[in-house]
């Protein structure tokens, strides 16, 4: 197959959707993972396939906290688009709660979706990447994983774990010419922040040196760069795309 294949977890909405579009534009076949938003993922694949230079997009359902579903997603992707050479671990859930109110189930769910999913997806992608001595893994963390957010301890801890995973795995698979990098977005306009009222968003803008919150394209462009040949000497790094909120 002439086109390399990228798989984007949580590609149905928000940042993941923009990443899918970016990688498709860069000539990748793209597997769009979704869990609940089937209509949006299927519509996105159809939209991309209508204006293609030859590469293809497919929608693939999987709850990325479930090992068996991830295994099936990779098998389906390989059969339809070829082996995955770029894996974007974008899926994430967030929750605002006082630390003392977080239940054990909520803690476990946060780590299953935000961290275990990356462990499982990387385990599926790596055998082919190691065999062909080529592959790029891009993990989406958060600035809160760098500096911590009040009332989001489980979210912050899970995103800090993504940073640790990125660095350790980059060291381990670097000799196989596999790059593992991480993006730590600042506040980005998506459904994840739809609960914030306008005054809080305005306050966040004022706290940001560049005076604005980010767009999904701001993150997608960084993913596009890391997936490109221009980034071939970069691994184990954490890129803050945050308008200067964290330096
Ligand atoms: P979003 O708009 O809430 O979208 C979340 C995506 O994750 C959806 O595509 C959703 O798919 C998918 N998802 C959730 N649970 C899943 C599961 N169990 N299995 C498979 N897919 C699942 O979030 P976003 O703002 O685009 O965030 C994307 C990433 O950026 C996350 O890792 C987030 O933590 C990180 N981030 C976001 C911000 C921000 O300000 N928005 C800031 C820093 C970091 P379905 O709808 O199909 O279930």
> Strand pairing plus helix content: what structural class?
alpha/beta
> What hetero molecules are bound to the protein chains?
NADP nicotinamide-adenine-dinucleotide phosphate
Shape: globular
In terms of quaternary structure, the protein is: single chain
Number of helices: 8
**H/E topology pattern:** EHEHEHEHEHHEHHE
Give the strand line-up of the largest sheet.
3-2-1-4-5-6-7
Radius of gyration: 17 Å
Beta-strand fraction estimate: 15-25%
What is the helical fraction, as a range of percent?
A: 40-55%
Q: Major sheet: size, sense and barrel closure?
A: 7 strands, parallel
Tell me how many strands there are: 7
Low-pLDDT segments? none
Give the tags:
binds NADP nicotinamide-adenine-dinucleotide phosphate; globular; single chain; alpha/beta; 247 residues; seven-stranded parallel beta sheet
Notes on the structure:
The protein is of the alpha/beta class. The protein contains 8 helices and 7 strands. Strands 3-2-1-4-5-6-7 form a 7-stranded parallel sheet, with helices on both faces. Helix 4 links the parallel strand 4 and strand 5 (135-140). The longest helix has 29 residues, at 104-132. It is globular. It starts with a strand and ends in a 6-residue tail after the last strand. The site of NADP nicotinamide-adenine-dinucleotide phosphate has 30 residues, from helix 1 and strand 2. Residues 9-10, 12-16, 33-37, 63-65, 90-94, 113, 140, 142, 185, 187-188, 190-193 line the site of NADP nicotinamide-adenine-dinucleotide phosphate (NAP).
Task: Provide a compact summary of the structure.
This protein has 247 residues and is of the alpha/beta class.
